[in-house]
Amino acid sequence: MPLDAAACDRLDEAPGPWAAWRSRLAGGEPGTLYLDANSIGPMPVDVPQRLQALLDGGWRKARRRGWTALNWLDQPRALGAALAPLIGAAPDDVRVADSTSVNQYKLLRHALAAAAPRRVIVLEREVFPSNRYVAEGLAQAGLADLRFVNDAASGLAEALAPGDVAVVALSHVDYRSSTRLDMAALTAQAHAGGALALWDLSHSAGAVAVHLRHCEADLAVGCGYKYLCGGPGAPAFLYVHPRLQQAAWPAIAGWMGHADTFAFAAGYRPAPGPDRWLAGTPAVLANTAFEAAAAIWQDVDPAMLDARHRSLTDTLVQLLDEQCGGFGLALASPREHARRGGHVALRFEGAAPLAQALAEQGVVVSARRPDALRLGVHPLATTHADLWLAVQRLQRVLKDGTWQAPRFAGPAI
Amino acid sequence: MPLDAAACDRLDEAPGPWAAWRSRLAGGEPGTLYLDANSIGPMPVDVPQRLQALLDGGWRKARRRGWTALNWLDQPRALGAALAPLIGAAPDDVRVADSTSVNQYKLLRHALAAAAPRRVIVLEREVFPSNRYVAEGLAQAGLADLRFVNDAASGLAEALAPGDVAVVALSHVDYRSSTRLDMAALTAQAHAGGALALWDLSHSAGAVAVHLRHCEADLAVGCGYKYLCGGPGAPAFLYVHPRLQQAAWPAIAGWMGHADTFAFAAGYRPAPGPDRWLAGTPAVLANTAFEAAAAIWQDVDPAMLDARHRSLTDTLVQLLDEQCGGFGLALASPREHARRGGHVALRFEGAAPLAQALAEQGVVVSARRPDALRLGVHPLATTHADLWLAVQRLQRVLKDGTWQAPRFAGPAI
User: Do A43 and B59 touch (CB under 8 A)?
Assistant: First the structure.
C-alpha cells in the first residue's frame, strides 16, 4: 500500500524518546526542510548559551586561567569519549582534533610506520577526493605507493595479493551513492592480507551503526560537522585501536601529544595513548560548541539511532519510488539498509539544477558531479513527515520542469 | 625621575586613537589586570554578536548553503589578508588555518622539499618545545636531520658551514625571555649559507613590528590566540614568500588545497598560491570569532602599534626597576625594545608561586620553568596605568612574602 501523509505521521509516533531528542536540536527557517545533515548537521539548541558562557566567563574573564580552571586542555579527550559509543569504540581510544584531512594524514602515516617495510596504500578509485589527495601527497613525497581498486568488495583480494599493502583506506560510506561497505568483512580481508584497515566514518558516524572494535578496525577518522552536529567546520575525530597506539611516533609530533606537555622537556616523548595524535593547542571555541552535541549523543542509544535511520530512509526510498518514479531519477543508494549510509542518493543527469530548484522550494539538498542528488537524513532531527513533504515538493518541481537550466552550482560542501 | 601614577596617566594620553581601539576590546573581571596577552589576548567586544549571527543565520538557517552564500570557504584567505600588514606581508601570501604546530610541520616539510637534497634543520636548543618536537618527529621519521645551536645570533655561522642546512627554524621572540632575534640579519645569514629561514611569530605578531618581506623571510607561522586576539585555541597563520609558493606539493594535500576543489577531480593538483597549504575544511566557527579581531587589525597602523608597545614595555621595565629592584628579581628580557618581544620576563627562582600569588591579587601573569615570570603587554588593551597598578601589587606581594610556597603550577599555556 502506498505511503500517505498519515502513515508518515504514524511512523513518527514510534516508541522512543524521539520528540525529546529532537527538541534538543534547533529548527531552521520556518517551512524549510533540511536534508543536508551529510553536509552540516543541525545545531543543538544550547550551543548559544554554551558559547556565551565561554566568551564571558572564559575568554573575557578567566583568560589564560581557562586552560586549567575550565578544562580546555581536556576537551579533545572528553569529546572523544562522548562520541565513542556511536562508533563502537572504547571511550579512551577516540580524540577530537584538527580536520578530517589532517587526521587522515596522521593515521595513514601511522599505518605506514606500523606496517613497514610495506608501503602500499590501497584506495577505491572514486573515494572522497580529499582522502585520495592526502594519499597522493604521500606518494608524491616518496613515503608511500598507491594502488587503486574500482570496488573494494570485489577488488581487494587482487590488490592484497602481492603482499606489500600497508593499509587499506576506505570510506565506510560513499559520499555520492551512500553505499556502505562491510566493515567487518573488509577489515578481516585486509588483515588476512597482512594489511591494516583505516576507515573514514564521515558519512556514517551519527547516522548509522558503526562497530569499530567489533569489526577489529585498526584506525578511523571522521567528520565532526555532519551528522555529529559539531558545527560548521567543527574539529574531526580519530580512533586508534589499542594494539596500535604505541606502534610509532606520531607524524606530527606536537606539544599536546607529548607525554608531559608542561614539563617543557627538551626531547619529544609521545604520550602513551591516543593523546599522541594531538599536535597543537585545542580549538577551544569550536570544541565548546561541539560539547553541546556531545551531551546529546551521550544520552542516545546507538542501536535505536540506527533503527530510526532505517525507518526514515526506508520511508524516503519508498516515497521516491511511489511519487517520483516516472521522471528519470534512479536510486543510486542500495535498497538494503545495512548497505546504505547516512544519506539517500538519486542518480539524475540534471542533479545540480534540480538541487537548486529544490532549494527555491524550501528543500535543502546537495548535488555532486556528475549526477548525484543527495538527500541527507538525520535520525534525531528528520521526521517521516518531513520526508513526505520533501518528496511532495520534489514531485512538484519535477512536474513543473522549469528548473532545467543547465547549471552545475559552484562550491558546495 | 622615578615614574609615578600621574606620569603613567600622562603616557596614556599620548596622541593616537588608543581609546577608540581599546574600546573595541572587552574588559575582564573588574579590578583584575590581565598581563597574559602572550597566552590569550583580550576578546573583541563584537565577538558575541558575530557568533550569534553565525549560529542563527548560518548554522541554524543557512546550513550547507553557508559555504558559498556566507563566504565560509573564503575565511582562511580573508583572515590572512587582514593580518598581513601586521607582519609585513602582502595580503595574498598569508592564510589562517590549523594550529601553529601543524603549520610548522607543513612549512618545515616545504622547506625540506624546496631545499633538497639538503636535509638539516637548524634550531635553537631552547626553542619553544612544540617547534622542537615537530622537527624531532621529522628526524624520527627519517625525513630530516637536526642541528641545535645554543644561540642563533652567535652560532648560526658554524651551523651553516657544512653546507647541508635546508632550513633555519627560529622563534622570532623567545617564549621565556622575550628576546627578539634580528630577523633581517639572521635571514640574510641563512640565505648566505644556502638555507631557507622559517620564523615563528607567535610572540611578536600583533605586539611588535614584523617585516617579513622587508627581511626576505621565506616562511613563517604564528599563533592566532595570543596578541592577535583570535580567541582561545584560534586557528594559526602561515606565510610563504611568493618565490617559494610553487616549489613543491604541500605535505598534507587536502581538498581545500586543490587548484579546483569542487571539480572533485581524480588527481591532486596543488592550488597555485598559498591555498595549497589549506588541507581540510575551514574552522568556520573559530574563523568567525577571529574575524572580529581581524576587523580591528585592519584599522591599526603597525608602526603606531610598535611605538605604543615600546612605550608600554619601557614603562614596565622602569617600574620594575624602581619598585621591585630589591627582591631578587632579574630582568630576563633585553632592555632595548628592538631586541624585546611581546612580553617582559623576569628571572626569579620562585616564579611559579609568585605568579599564583599575583593571580590572587588580581594580576594575571604566567610562569615558565625553570624561573621565568612573564608579563604580557597588549599594545591595544594594556594601559600605562594598568602597569603602574600591576607593579604596585607585585611590590606588595614581594614585601608580604607569604606566597613562597614551593609550588610550580601545573599546566598553563
Answer: yes
For the cut 70, the answer to whether the pLDDT of residue B330 exceeds it is yes
Q: In CATH, what is the architecture of B5-45+301-397?
A: Alpha-Beta Complex (3.90)
Segment B333-341 shows an average pLDDT of 97
Reply yes or no on whether the pLDDT at B1 is more than 90. Answer: no
Written out in words, the top-level CATH class of the domain with range A5-44+301-395 is: alpha beta
Comma-separated ranges of CATH 3.90.1150.10 domains in chain A: 5-44+301-395
* Grid cell for residue A65: 586561567
Residue corresponding to grid cell 626553542: B127
Q: What is the ipTM of this complex?
A: 0.96
C-alpha span between A17 and A9 (Å, rounded): 16
Q: Which three cell numbers stand for residue B170?
A: 627560529
DSSP E strand boundaries for B187-342: 196-200, 219-222, 237-240, 330-331
A287-304 CB burial, b ≥16 within 10 A, e <16: bbbbbbbbebbeebebeb
Contact B73 A100 (CB under 8 A): no
Q: How far is A33 from chain B (nearest CA, A)?
A: 10
Whether B225 is catalytic is: yes
Q: How far is A89 from chain B (nearest CA, A)?
A: 24
pLDDT in tens, A26-72: 999 999 999 999 999 999 999 999 999 999 999 999 999 999 899 99
Which residues make up the CATH 3.40.640.10 domain(s) of chain B? 50-297
Nearest residue in A to B98, CA atom: A98
Mind listing the pLDDT tens digit for each residue in A253-281?
999 999 999 999 989 999 999 999 999 99
| Model confidence pLDDT, tens digit, residues A133-168 | 999 999 999 999 999 999 999 999 999 999 999 999
Domain A49-297, CATH number (from 3.30.70.120, 3.40.640.10, 3.30.1330.30, 3.40.50.2300): 3.40.640.10
- What does the alpha-carbon distance between residue A412 and residue B355 come to, in Å, rounded to a whole number? 49
Q: Is B226 a catalytic residue?
A: yes
Q: Is B109 one of the annotated active-site residues of the chain? A: no
Q: Can the peptide bond before residue B117 be classed as cis, meaning omega within 30 degrees of 0?
A: yes
| pLDDT for the residue numbered A87 | 98
| A285·B233 Cβ contact <8 A | yes
For residue B16, report the phi and psi dihedrals to the nearest 5 degrees: 130, 160
* Domain spanning B50-297: CATH 3.30.565.10: no
Nearest-by-Cβ selection for A39 from B64, B235, B267: B64
Predicted confidence at residue A403, as pLDDT, reads 67
What kind and span of H or E run contains B305?
Answer: helix B302-324
What pLDDT, on a 0 to 100 scale, did the predictor assign at position B407?
A: 46
Residue A1 to chain B, least CA–CA distance (Å): 35
Residue A410 has pLDDT above 60, yes or no: no
Cβ-based contacts of A40 with chain B (< 8 Å) = 59, 63-64, 66
Q: Catalytic: B147?
A: no
Radius of gyration for the alpha carbons in chain A, expressed in angstroms and rounded: 22
pLDDT one-digit tens code per residue, B5-55: 999 999 999 999 999 999 999 999 999 999 999 999 999 999 999 999 999
d(CA A221, CA A199): 6
DSSP string, A139-163: HHTTS-EEEEES-HHHHHHHHHTTS
- What's residue A227's pLDDT? 98
Instruction: Judge whether A243 counts as a catalytic residue.
Output: no
pLDDT at residue A409, as a whole number = 47
